[in-house]
Amino acid sequence: MPAEWEHHEATWLAWPHYQGDWPGKFEPIPWVYAEVVRNLAHRERVELLVNDASSERKASRFLDRANALSRNVRFHRWRTNRVWMRDSGCIFVTQQEPGLARPDSRGPALSVPKGRLFSHAPGSQGAFALKFRFNAWAKYSNWRHDEKIGSRMAKAAHAREIRPVSRDRRIVLEGGSIDVNGCGTLLTSEECLLSKVQERNPGMTRVHYEKAFADYLGAPNVIWLGRGIFGDDTHGHVDDLTRFVSPDTVVTMVERNSKDVNHAPLRANLRRLQAARDQDGKQLTIVEIPMPGPVVFEGRRLPASYANFYIANGVVLAPVFNDPSDRIALSTLAELFPKRNVVPIYSGDLIWGLGTMHCMTQQQPAGWPSAISKGGASAV
User: Fold this and answer.
1) Considering the entire predicted model, what is its pTM?
2) Which residues have C-beta within 8 Å of that of residue 194, sequence separation ≥ 6?
3) Which DSSP string corresponds to 189-252?
4) pLDDT per residue as tens digits for the range 105-139
5) Of the candidates 59, 5, 1, 75, the residue with the CA atom closest to the CA atom of residue 317
């Protein structure tokens, strides 16, 4: 799995439509999406999912008014339950000849166990899509449209679909539960993958996960964090906690207020990172970013975190919350990504849906066949 900062062919998004994710606060959400699309389409193709032709017309009007509609935006008329493409979409990976690494990464080649290849499009050699099962974080009941999205993405991208298994059962895994450096090291959390609460894969142990990460993601070195932040309905996604920003550097969230509910788990995660080693046995460089102050709406503490940024071609989209810590987060990211434009996206309304920039996006690495339908919509 290439690191997120490696060059992209495209970013996949789904246009917001399910008002139940933002009850009483849906009106500003399409404008946030339009701002995200506008910043991405200048730099890479945007593959945008809409439910039907009517939804496409509605999205086009929003994008046009926000100066975000361009030939670099391609619509796909596929029904979705929710818009969190990081978790429902497939994970794009690459394959090389044994022993060869990508020129922009030191990582090992993907090892695909026998019998795991399901579909193959002509000309897709080296282009793979991991289609993990999706069951709405083992929490919600409306996921059946979203479960089909990964396969449709793979087909549209002319990629070979792989359906990862462990112990002869398909693996449930969301993209927000992992983060990679593209060189063989992966971050995840025990609360998300090993807890009995919102259990994705009953009976699947730490050893099973580590084998799957090595086999399917080319990441044999796994760093396990502990608990996630309060209010996270995914029960511990790592993309709200700690993110790779280069092969040997991570940013991690910290809470300075010792009385805050996030203080102890984030401090414990920091200690784990300090003791961790990368795939070469070296210590990580750790950059701390303070959490924003509590974001509360209708009496509910929301999972606002600066770690949920998205790295695209030439840009980093960073969630901000009109908080004094915004400037610290933006300045830190600007120092870490000197060749990218760090763009703040106000997410005070968006976070009511319990996700921000990273949750809503899924990258497609560059170097893939560019044969996704030319113009118009691809309808299934």
Assistant:
1) 0.91
2) 205, 206, 209
3) EHHHHT-STT-SSTT--HHHHHHHHHHHHS--EEEEE----TT-TTSS-GGGTEEEEETTEEEE
4) 444 444 455 444 434 343 445 689 999 999 999 99
5) 5
Enumerate the β-bridge partners of residue 288: 252
**Hey, what domains does the chain have and what are their CATH numbers?**
8-379 (3.75.10.10)
Please tell me the predicted confidence (pLDDT) of residue 321. 98
Helix or strand or coil: residue 286? strand
Q: In what order do the strands lie in the sheet with 91-94?
A: 91-94, 127-130, 160-162, 117-119
Q: Residue 67's CB: how many other CB atoms inside 10 A?
A: 9
> Which DSSP category does 283 fall into?
B
Contact in structure between 6 and 104 (CB atoms under 8 Å): yes
- Cβ(173)–Cβ(233) under 8 Å? no
pLDDT in tens, 342-369: 999 999 999 999 999 999 999 999 975 4
